[in-house]
Amino acid sequence: MSDPVLAEGAIKKSVPQTEKGTSLWQDAWLRLRKNTFALLGLGVIVFFCIIALLTPYIAPYGYEQQNLMLGAVPPSAEHWLGTDIFGRDMLTRIMYGSRVSLMVGFIATGVALIIGVLWGTIAGYAGGRVDAVMMRLVDILYALPFMIFIVLLMVVFGRNILLLFLAIGAVEWLTMARIVRGQVLSLRRQEFIEAAVSLGLSRWTIIRRHLIPNTLGPVIVYTTLTIPSVMLLEAFLSFLGLGIQPPQSSWGLLISYGVETMEEYPWLLLFPGLALSITLFALNFLGDGLRDALDPRASRN
Amino acid sequence: MRNKIFGLTVLTTTLLITTLLMGGCSGGENNVTTGNRDGILHWGNGTDPQELDPHIVTGIPEHHILTALLEGLVAKDPATLEPVAAVAKEWSISEDGKTYTFKLRHNAVWSNGDPVTAHDFAWSWWRALQPALGNQYAYMLFPIKNSEAYAKGEIDDFSQVGVKVLDDYTLEVELNNATPYFLQLLDHYSMFPVHRPTIEKFGKPDERGSLWTRPGNFVGNGPFTLKEWKLFKRVEVVKNPQYWDAGKVKLNGIHFHPIENVTTEERMFRSGQLHHTGSIPIDKVATYKKDKPHLLHTYPYLGNYFYRINTKLPHLSDQRVRQALAMSIDSKQLTEQVTKGGEVPAYTFTPPNTLGYNAKSAFEFNPEKARKLLAEAGYPDGKDFPVTELLYNTSESHRKIAVAIQQMWNQYLGVNIILNNQDWKVYLDSVGNGDYSIARAGWIGDYVDPNTFLDMWVTEGGNNHTGWSNPRYDELILKLAPTIPDRAMRYKLMAEAEAILLEDMPIIPIYIYNSKSLVHPSLKGLQPNILDYVLYKNLSLDPSLSGVNIH
Amino acid sequence: MFRFIVSRLLQAIPVLLVVITATFFLVRAAPGGPFSAEKTVAPEVIKALEAQYKLDQPVWQQYLSYLNDLAHGDFGPSFRYPGRSVDELIAGGLPITAELAFYAMLVAIIIGVSAGVLAALKPNTPQDYVPMSAAMIGICMPSFLMGPLLVLIFGIWLEWLPVSGWGDLPGDKILPAITLGSGYAAFLARLSRGGMLEVMSQDYIRTARAKGLPEWVVVLKHGLRGGLIPVIAFLGPAFAGLLSGSFVVETIFQIPGLGRFYVQAAFNRDYTMILGTTVFFATLVVLFNLLSDIIAVWINPKLRHQLREGK
Fold it and tell me: Rg (Cα) of chain C, in Å, rounded?
């Protein structure tokens, strides 16, 4: 009789080692790493966020510090990005502006995210009547000319920054809800959900532990792509005079000031414009990269 | 390989379509060239006119158009602003200054040939007072006896109002008081005549916005008639051959371009699309002063930029606090560094030299004295001074000034001010309701006389809004001054009143307005004056200067 | 098909009602009334004005009478322009905005689709990256940034094109169209690239190539048909977005279109104008979505089939 232990060892040795399995996330990360543009985008965003957070400590001048005698001067050693007509340092103003613009971008998107994900998941999972009603509501809201409403809202209720978040978030959650619902619908029929149901897990637990994590892919992608459109929306509103109000400043507001004086002092338009554009570029590249990484079919030759 | 062909096809198509859109590039002749050749003046006119009915409108763009289409009894000499004959060829004033008799010229006609008679004026003024018309300038007629009572519905019978038609060409007007500036008022559009048959043809006399003002319907008695009114594009008027003084009118027509954005307007001027702009972007003033001063026309304007103070608030009810605030504003630095439009700092409320009136300037920029006053009032170095809000209507220029003043008050007094801006309409409501602490304001005189500036501040005056009240001031302005026909004596009384106003300081005058425009060298005949008043008859275009370089 | 259209039309009605009601009450809730002015208006004048515009009636009454007027196609008089009805103002501004939107769409389609198709034909090569990055500029540079920049470069420095106006000078429609269309060009580029990529990898394309058809026939005749489906589906919402996005472009270039009227009306508290424009835009959006859905179904035999089966 052979020794079972020895036999086992022999069997183990002769079977070739299988590859260590990689999760979806690790796969995605590997793909993302190969995408130079996306990485660049990520780097830029992280860089801007760090600067935004540290602004009160590292800004070269005070935010409202005027120098009326100086007026607007082009970039120089003392003022790397020049000054505006009040003699205020543009680098400082752009840095403070980044705080507002990025904050609006992230928070409003966050609002849209929360509402959209919850709405879409519930609709998709509940199905039937509940789903129909919820999505019909989304359809109705989708048909509204939102730009018009936002303009009206801002004119009516004055410029409360909280209201700005809500208004913008209220526009963007619809598409999120649709995407999530689509995902949930396709997931619902899969076996692992059936298994969870038959295990007796509560609906809420299923939603929380199984559905939402699996919808994260498209959600992340869409979120990354929503932030730039939110920032654009805020800039647009501020440009019209309806968004961020002075003394606060956002990139949109700085751009609108720059437009007025762009012939005399082009740097007042150029630098905030560049800041906004670069951020939007970065976010879009990142979002594209994430989408390609998480869903390889999209970029398949 | 084939991909390249595909790509090429697409590219070519794109280029083709783009060329199509491009038309002939921008090589056409500009408005100044064609205008000078055809005698058409291209005038930048701010916002689009709300209406062209002189008894409904309220704005300056409308004024520019209406003075081309209609003419009142009396006009003004652009150089001196003294009254000159218009529809009325002469007039006489009674001893006590309360009765005016106008003799109309016999050759003044409407653009359809009807003669302009005294009946027209009587009827037009009757119409202007009808409440249903909603005429916001009805108050211009109130110096006429009983007109205010009639407008408010206190009396029903118009024959009690001091307007009498003595015969077809003689009009007698009786006033409540000797109003020395009455002749000035006659040149305001609310006192213009309108053509009765035309109005009655298109609706009721007090019907707002009927079709009588449309091109083809409009009948006026001015040097021009209405040819076209394209909403948001332009208003075109052409020379009226029937006008009694048509021989003197050298222009063949005027195009009023509604351009709200001053930056766009300035660009259009530079591309030769306008002869005259309504304003000029602040940031360009310095450039023009330096490089092209002959194109820049600035002149003091009959208006005052000031701050209202809510005297009902405890910490602002102390006169010394208000004076301290006023004396710590360096208006000179403000106008030189911030507004940069060449405005004059104001130390009185009525602009200096308002038809010869000069109030005594009562305060000056003196931070030392200001600090002392503030300390006396109980807030040494601004300690314990409540945080106060400065309100202004949303506009970059107002904000610039507010920011600068906020800094000055902080620097010189140690006082903490927060800024708040509101939409125009909301801001008006807030000020009207007394819902503010300190608010930015501006006032443009309706006529050239200190009264238009000083009668605002009587107790509970409709435009007061500060809660300030002074019985002696009321007496001077409402009772004494109106009864004195002699100009010099009147001015003395008003100066006394203004001195009281400036001593108490419910308002802080900051600077006197400036009219600023860009004018093409080919436009001749403009005469600068404090009302920015233009007599189109005097204007002419010189085609030889069309090509002058204005870049 | 017919039932599909009818059911969608019916669905549109509650949407419009919500829009009208929400706007009506929102506008009335705004602080600052239409008749506030710097020179305080005499109370009897305000009373007369309010009576004329029915503002002295209780709000519910005003709402119902407005709905009634609306059913008769009457948007009411403008507050700011006495003598002009809102219908008149909309009729004046609409053709201009529509023309602008049309040209912008043209720009967007031409640039966007060409870029996307070109990119899809050689994915992950420079032929892919360059057009897509260029298209990206359209997304990332907002219209209020691009517009002034274009004006600065082409209107002021080079003086090739006019700086403002619409229809006054030759070529003054180009810059506004490009400014408005570039953002959508980018979206269309992505969509068409994605659509083409999916289609080009299908079997029937391989068959066509195997049959020996020249490549451009393959692409144009077979590829585009399927690849452009997502583009067509997007056209509806895109056109609606163009209309409302015209605000900024119209402001920058001084174009007398509906978008600019709307923003001004909002600031002036011209109630009827705001309401009228909102209702009008909402109707347009609904219509366009419907049209776009119909076209999408019609052009795609698969969906048409589904429709017949499903219904």
Answer: 24
Nearest to B421 among A69, A245, A265 (CB): A245
Q: What kind and span of H or E run contains C188?
A: helix C174-200
pLDDT at A300: 38
State yes or no: pLDDT of A2 exceeds 50.
Answer: no
CA distances from C255 to C84, C94, C100 (A): 19, 11, 9
Task: Give domain status of residue C76, yes or no.
Answer: no
Q: Does residue C147 fall inside a structural domain?
A: yes
Q: Do A276 and C145 touch (CB under 8 A)?
A: yes
Q: How far is C13 from chain B (nearest CA, A)?
A: 32
Q: List A residues 141-170 in contact with C (Cβ-Cβ < 8 A).
A: 142-149, 151-153, 155-156, 158
Residues C289, C220 share a domain: yes
Rg (CA), chain A: 25
Q: Which residue has the higher pLDDT, C6 or B90?
A: B90
Within a domain: residue C282? yes
C114 CB-near residues (< 8 Å, 6+ apart): B7, B10, B11, B14, C131
- Do C289 and C178 belong together in one domain? yes
Q: In total, how many domains does chain C have? A: 2
Read off the pLDDT of residues C188-206 as tens digits, 9 standing for 90 and up.
887 787 777 777 777 777 7
For A239, residues 6+ apart whose C-beta sits below 8 A from its C-beta are: A252, A253, A255, A256, A259, C142, C144, C248
Does an H or E element contain A36, and which? helix A36-58
CB B367 within 8 A of CB B327: yes
Split at pLDDT 50, 70, 90, the class of B26 is very low
Is residue C111 located within the same domain as residue C175?
Answer: yes
A63 touches chain C (CB under 8 A): no
H helix runs in B76-162, sequence order? 118-128, 147-151
Residue C81 lies in a domain: no
pTM value is 0.81
Complex ipTM: 0.76
Q: Are residues C270 and C136 in the same domain?
A: yes
Q: Is C187 within 8 Å of C136 (Cβ atoms)?
A: no
Hey, what domains does chain A have and what are their CATH numbers? 33-300 (1.10.3720.10)
Domain that holds residue C56: 8-71
Answer whether B267 sits within 8 Å of C38, measured CB to CB. Answer: no
The domain boundary residue, chosen from C71, C104, C123: C71
B32 closest CA partner among B257, B296, B298: B257
Among candidate residues B289, B337, B356, B298, the one with its CA nearest the CA of residue B513: B298
The answer to whether the CB of A217 falls within 8 A of the CB of A228 is no
**Residue C233: its pLDDT value, please?**
67
In the predicted model, what is the mean pLDDT of residues C224-244? 70
Identify the helix (H) or strand (E) that includes residue B512.
strand B507-518
Of A66, A245, A264, the CB nearest to B283: A264
Instruction: Answer yes or no: do C43 and C91 share one domain.
Output: no
- DSSP 3-state percent helix, strand, coil across chain B (nearest 5): 40, 20, 40
What tens digit of pLDDT does each residue of B117-137 get? 999 999 999 999 998 888 888
* Separation between Cα atoms, residue C270 and residue B295, nearest integer Å: 38
Phi, psi (deg, nearest 5) at residue A276: -65, -50
Instruction: Give the domain-ending residue among C71, C98, C120.
Output: C71
Peptide bond into A247 cis (omega under 30): yes
DSSP state of C78: -
Does C210 lie at the interface with A, CB-CB under 8 angstroms? no
Among C155, C141, C168, smallest CA distance to C248 is for C141
Task: Based on the fold, state whether residues C30 and C145 are members of the same structural domain.
Answer: no
Report the pLDDT averaged over residues B18-27.
Answer: 48
- Does residue C17 sit in the same domain as residue C116? no
Q: In this structure, what CATH number is given to the domain that contains residue C92?
A: 1.10.3720.10
Same domain for C224 and C146, yes or no, is yes
Residue of B nearest to A257 (CA): B396
